[in-house]
C-alpha cells in the first residue's frame, strides 16, 4: 500500500484533549477503510503565518499512514467537512522517516542550518558597493543619492503647458 503523511490544523479554541480526539477520530476512519496509521504526533498549538477563519493560532497534528488511496480520500473528505478542521495537507512519500518529526525534536538535536546553505558561520559573499558596476545589464553608476538626476525637470514646463506624461 502507498505511504502518506498528513498534517492538519484544528481551530485554536479547542482544548488539547479535543484536538487529540480529532487525531483518534481520523485514525479510526483510516483503519475502518483498510489502512493503518504508522505513527501520529500532536504538535500542539502553534502560531500561523496568516489568519485562517479569523484564527491566529491552531492545533497542529501529524499522521504517518500506510493506506489505500480510497481510505485517504475518505479521510480527507471528512476532514474538509469537519467544522473544527481548518486546513489539511496530504503528501505521498516513498518511505517514512525514522524517529520523531522535525517539529518534535528539541532545538539542540536539530542539525545546524549550515548544511542547507542558510544561516550560520558559513562563508560570506562580498557584496558590491552601492550602485556597483559588476552587473553588465545595469550600466555602471546609476546616479545614487544627491546626483544631478532630474535637476532640470520642470525648468521649462510652464512655457508650453502641454500634456503631462
| Major sheet summary line | 4 strands, antiparallel
Give the ordered list of helices and strands.
Answer: EHEEHEH
| CATH architecture annotation of the domain at 3-95 | 2-Layer Sandwich
Shape: extended
* Structural class by SSE content: alpha+beta
| DSSP E strands, number | 4
What percent of residues adopt helix (DSSP H or I)? 10-25%
CATH homologous superfamily (4th level) name of the domain at 3-95: Ribosomal protein S6/Translation elongation factor EF1B
CATH topology assignment of the domain at 3-95: Alpha-Beta Plaits
CATH class of the domain at 3-95: Alpha Beta
Counting DSSP H or I runs of 4 or more residues, the number of helices is: 3
Order of adjacent strands in the largest pleated sheet: 2-3-1-4
Strand content: 25-35%
Mind telling me the C-alpha Rg? 28 Å
Mean pLDDT: 79
User: What low-confidence regions span 5 or more consecutive residues with pLDDT below 50?
Assistant: none
Separation, N- and C-terminal Cα atoms: 65 Å
Amino acid at each position: 500500500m502507498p505511504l502518506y503523511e498528513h498534517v492538519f490544523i484544528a481551530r485554536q479554541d479547542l482544548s488539547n484533549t479535543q484536538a487529540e480526539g480529532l487525531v483518534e477520530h481520523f485514525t479510526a476512519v483510516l483503519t475502518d477503510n483498510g489502512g493503518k496509521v504508522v505513527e501520529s504526533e500532536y504538535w500542539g498549538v502553534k502560531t500561523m503565518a496568516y489568519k485562517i477563519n479569523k484564527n491566529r493560532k491552531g492545533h497542529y497534528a501529524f499522521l504517518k499512514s500506510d493506506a489505500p488511496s480510497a481510505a485517504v480520500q475518505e479521510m480527507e473528505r471528512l476532514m474538509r467537512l469537519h467544522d473544527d478542521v481548518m486546513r489539511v495537507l496530504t503528501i505521498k512519500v516513498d518511505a517514512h522517516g525514522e524517529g520523531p518529526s522535525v517539529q518534535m525534536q528539541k532545538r539542540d538535536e536539530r542539525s545546524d542550518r549550515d548544511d542547507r546553505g542558510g544561516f550560520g558561520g558559513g562563508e560570506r559573499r562580498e557584496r558590491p558597493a552601492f550602485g556597483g558596476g559588476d552587473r553588465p545589464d545595469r550600466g555602471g553608476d546609476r546616479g545614487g543619492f544627491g546626483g544631478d538626476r532630474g535637476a532640470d525637470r520642470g525648468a521649462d514646463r510652464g512655457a508650453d503647458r502641454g500634456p503631462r506624461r
